Amino acid sequence: MSDWSAVTRPIPVPNEWTKPFWDAAKRGVVELQRCQSCGHFQHPPYATCTQCVSTDLKFEPVRGAGTIYAYTIMYHTGDKRFASAVPYASIIVELDDAPGALMAGNLLDAEYTEAKVGRRVEVVFEKLNDDITLPQFRLALE
Amino acid sequence: MWENRCKIAVSGVGYSKVTRSAEIPLAAHALTAVKEAVADSGLQMSDIDGLATYPELPATGHAEVDGISIVSVNCMMAMLKLPNLTWHIQVGSVNIGGAVQQAVNALLAGVCKYAVVWRAMHNPRGTYQNLPSGNAAGATQFTAPYGFGGPGQGMAVAYTRWLERNGQSRDKMATLAVTQRKHTQHNPHAYFYGTPLSREDYFASRMVAYPFCLFDCDIPVQGAVAIVLTTADRARDLKPTPAYLAGYGERLKFEVAGRIGSLADYMEGGASSAKLTWERSGFGPKDVDVAQIYDGFSASVIYGLESYGFCREGEALDFIQDGRIELDGELPLNTFGGSLGTGRIHGLWHIIEGALQASGRAGSRQVKDVNVSFVGASAPIVTGTTFIFVKEPY
Hints:
The complex is a heterodimer of chains A (142) and B (394). Chain A is mainly beta. Chain A is built from 1 helix and 9 strands, in the order E-H-E-E-E-E-E-E-E-E. In chain A, the strands form 2 sheets. Chain A has a 5-stranded mixed beta barrel with strand order 5-6-7-9-8. A 3-stranded antiparallel beta sheet of chain A has the order 3-2-4. Chain A is globular, with a radius of gyration of 16 Å. Chain B has a 9-stranded mixed beta sheet with strand order 3-2-4-8-1-9-12-11-10, with helices on both faces. Chain B has a two-stranded antiparallel sheet with strand order 6-7. Chain B starts with 7 loop residues before the first strand and ends with a strand. Classes of the chains: A mainly beta (142), B alpha/beta (394).
């Protein structure tokens, strides 16, 4: 299992577009940007709806259940902050409530070999500091 | 069809020495490549009146120093002091293929007569993707905290999706790496000239970012290549046989910054560029005699073959088997070795090879009876462009 204990993750720097996402994560909730005009969820946040170009966008809570859309297993140790965790799975997840909105994460509490396209996962939260909590993923309990 | 079909041609081409690390300033590489391309055309430097490049270094966390880590148009102007210069451009959004296309447009507009396009690539000291910051700002705030560091991982996630959705095996990619390395042995300018690669080498190599092993990734190098473009009538009076440009296209679809791992993004980008190129040239995938498809990471070739229409989605790794991409195969592919053979110089070398194959100047790697020569000059993911060069300007 990848050992994350010695990894120093880069700390996300929220901006005017992304602050609601990080504020929600701090409360243990995933909120994604949703177009109030056509209902489309999108991630990462953007100035306009990427479907209908509406600017009427709000963050709405979504459930943390989803599937692995894609993944890679990192072996390269060029990034020293993550070198102690290799090999580790970096995954892309599509949440059931937000098709097409792809979230990155790591597969926690599982062997990296468990990462497969289509595998069910659920959100867990990893507190980085008092300001930032990171949405992460683990295999869904059946 | 395009009203300017076959009105512009590639004439001379030039190369600097390709080295693993920076032994001399990058500007010296660029200068060598440009001088060689001009000489190959049989022109004098004073004939050159147009300059274009895409100078970006695709590494992270390294200082940008003109002449050392990039070679801008300003740098080239300062070095060459061209007495008759009338036009130049440095493109930012469409990679080196976009610089070539702008040079084509300038020639068609009559604002220059002989344009030189170069691509110079630096290999910085230390880690290529050097991410020292403790913070992840901008688009990286959603990716960097999870260990997504460089473009390789972004390509790798789409590759796993492609593999597992299509029930495919990465083992089949060995054919691409080995065949391209075989082609490389006919290209003395390439970094891996003189270094063959076996299937065993491929399977024994270390994993970088699964499904990419070492030989799925082009090696960072220091070097430069250049071409001379001119109008078809002028090209006919020059030394080399011209390679006529029958059509070109560029990617028309983009997803927002920071989105990662979308296979559809690559496919739609590639398809939009190819559609323009097929329509403008009047050719289709079945007409193509030889193809160069950008291969900075091996999986780019999959997205290229499928999105350009050479095979159906999910079939590219089967398509490249059984000798089809050999020099005497049905679709000889990356006949100069590709970026996997030359080292990381980006797509101008693919354009050079496309032009050389069309003009019959590819030496011992020349494919027989080439008329239609296709180029996908950069991966669909990174601002793809596509070109068709032909021998016969009909």
